[in-house]
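Job type: complex structure
Entries:
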Amino acid sequence: LSTPIDFYFDFSSPYGYFGAAMIEPIAARHGRTVRWHPILLGAVFKITGGAPFPTIPLKGEYANHDFARCARYYGLRFALPSKFPVATHNTARAFIWADDQNEPLAKQFALALYRAYFEEDVDISDTANVARIAASLGFDAKRLLAALSDLSLKERLRAQNEAAIARGVFGSPFFFVDGEPFWGSDRLPQIEKWLTEGGF
Amino acid sequence: LSTPIDFYFDFSSPYGYFGAAMIEPIAARHGRTVRWHPILLGAVFKITGGAPFPTIPLKGEYANHDFARCARYYGLRFALPSKFPVATHNTARAFIWADDQNEPLAKQFALALYRAYFEEDVDISDTANVARIAASLGFDAKRLLAALSDLSLKERLRAQNEAAIARGVFGSPFFFVDGEPFWGSDRLPQIEKWLTEGGF
């Protein structure tokens, strides 16, 4: 019995980007699939009283340093975007729309969005950029832009975000492996151990 | 040139306990020594607006689960103390006093305090317990208890805490390796990589 790994991420989260880049190979090595769930950390922070890591006194300077070092540790390119963090409502909605059509391609779309934002300083809160990246992967940019103003897509993201919070998700990345919650890209080694040993 | 690793920790911090248990073997494998610096997270939280992890909505339940899982991951015993967190002013002062006399033995004292608190549910905010544990390692319990009411020891902890904050320390454990800051026991693999490669 091989249940999928649930992966929650915010498109404006550097650690979410690292999680997105790393989780699929880990899952594949252990015969697992991954379900990707975009979330909005802003809604979470209203409950936890949290704030974006780089905006917190003392933590902010460390955060920007740690983002870059973690990227080197994972072997990923990274440059702090000039506009950071950004609102990711439309980015997350675009992913849901893409995921409806083609799940594997939607994951490639998510990674392309992350790379555009954290490698190329492309503002992924701008729907024109989101549509252009979608088109580069073969999605229909016009249909995507029309869908982004659709009320049902907004409602689906809101409902998915509430479901994530109800499940205990409070950060990005956040993973569930066989129901076990793991917060942070720094828990990937524990996820590997969990998958290898069937829990520990 | 082999500079010591600076290790900052709060005695009420489970992740600080994991850091304390793990850092010395890592340092030794790379020919490094470690300087131990007790801090008071309460003073840090006043600046960062933080709060003890287990008291935060959503995060609290995860925290208690993560403490236990991390302990299993590191091969350490762990049981959430019935009184948690506790004030660690006197515990930290006792460490400074012990460190003045015998640095290697003071580290054993710190580990014994951590184990008493996180394995045996001994309240280490109680100076009688701190003195008993000190005596078990050969320290003079009477002199320790007298020193704990000494103003100069209080002032030294306050000054050391301010120096730590001025250096950017905002959590437990917190490490500096060749000036490079690392927050969290989950950064130990990055510290290992840093020590192996001389930075990355």
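Summary: Residues 103-120 of chain A form the longest helix (18 residues). Chain A touches chain B at residues 44, 47-51, 56-59, 61-62, 65-66, 69-70, 72-73, 165, 168-170, 180-181, 183-184, 186-187, 189-190, 193, 200 (CB under 8 Å).
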